Task: structure prediction
Amino acid sequence: MLAEPDTPSAASSSPTPILDAADLCKFYRRDRKSVVAVDRVSLAIAPGEVLAFLGPNGAGKTTTIKMIAGLIRPDGGTVRIAGEDPHSNPLALRGIGAVLEGNRNLYWRLTALENLEYFGVLRGMKRRAARLQGMVLLDQFSLAEKKDALVRTFSRGMQQKLAIAVALVHSPNLLLLDEPTLGLDVEAGEHVKGLVQAIAAQGCAVLLTTHQLDVAEALSDRVAIIRQGKLVAQATTADLIRQFSDAAYRIEVEGEISPTQRQAIAALEASVWGNVVHYMGDASGLYQVFDILRPLPILQVAPDRPDLTDVFLKVVRSGTILG
Amino acid sequence: MELFWAELKRSWTEFIRYPAEAIGGIIITTIVFYGLFLSARYMAGPAMQFGDRLDAVVVGYVLWTLTLFIISDISLNLQSEAQTGTLEQIFLSPFGPSRIFLVRALAGLTIRLTLITAILLILMGITGSRLQFPPALLLPLITNLMAGYGLAFIMGACALLFKRVQQLLGLFQFALLFVLATPIETWSTQLRVLGWMLPMIPSAGLLRDLMARGEALDWGVFALALANGTLYFALGMLVFRWAERQAKRRGMLGTY
Result:
């Protein structure tokens, strides 16, 4: 039923993914017990691809992202950024840009351009080059007018855009975005979504975590869902949604569905909500549902296409874990 | 070098961004030095006493305040970065945190030394007093700072693992006062050997010889001071890198 997690190499359309994380594991000791935070998680992202990494709170998303960024040492598994291990080769960090959730990511006492210049040098650029690239990014992110304004005077939306610009100043090939639209108003959220699309279009691989599943659905090429530290689904966003909508139909009738009809419908993997029947079986069974509903007039029959929110809820509520 | 200039610019910009804070700091430093120039030696507080001459009092005070500043600089910086949520961005740099915090500390030291020099020059102009230091003074000063940075990295390691280190810093200052003010060079040979192993002791002894006793630099003791500074600096780096690995293993870099 669920989309099987892809193997990293199969997951990407490119033979050389920018990110290749394999079998990542992390355990923590709490109250003298070993608690599994992340259990054999494998992710791969090709250049220009956006992977939405979804999961409930505490599922292991941030721990995984930080293991990829070299900020948390994994207890098992490997991370490769463009073939280099950030845990053993610090130069591999030049390939990473990150905006981490719960962090300011910026110096509030500095201006927008000063932040871009400083962090550019911190990532190995020359000051002049960082400044020039900073100006380009400020222009691209509609922040050029604010280049000399102190970051502490920025709105949350502007700060988030600047944090993304700072993460991109050294032209990384992997961008890690942990909850990039959290706390933003609708307009700022839409702007950030547009920016992420533009960044990916320029060839940067993007790993995105978010609880806003409409954002994930709009932006992602692929989705990976993690629950209790384990990857429970990984597929292209379209495939994942299709898998859940392949055999689902929504049948709307006129009039009241009788208790006898309801009982018969329930036996056919279908459910009744008012005068609407949701049928999850194959197409041949659909005619059996029609027979049961006879003689009620049928107003509409349509494929019951779930959105990513429906898929996500089904996957995380399911007891199944596919490995 | 690019990193040093970037850190210098960042530190200076952050320092002057709140002018009241910056000017207040400069005024206080100026008042203390002016007091010293007016022979009010008590203004130097618990400074190292290198003699009664103004030169010696000023050197003692500068060294004491610099050492205190250096030792707490890295750990307080780490705490502040963790609090404001920029620490993990520093750890994402290919330069590595130990190099960044060292360069940052050197940038901070440069700003502090420049301000002190400027204040002293202005005061010399106003009061007509003249300060004279033997150039050899720089050598034990450097070895003293090396050991100081070693201790600073050990405190930084504590800040990485324990997050808040204010109490520890207070205790450390007390120990430092003992270390820097004890005339270990007058002790018996056995105790002196033991004392040389403590951080900064040989350097402080040399400074006392140069400033208070007017002696020439003892190259043998300087070799000891250099070994002492190098050893503590290397130890500090090793401890800090160990703490960095521990913090990454325990996943506690971003926590505060």
Observations:
- The first strand of chain A starts at residue 19 and ends at 30.
- Chain A is about 35% helix and 25% strand.
- The domain at 246-318 of chain A is CATH 3.30.70 (Alpha-Beta Plaits).
- Chain A touches chain B through 38 residues (CB under 8 Å).
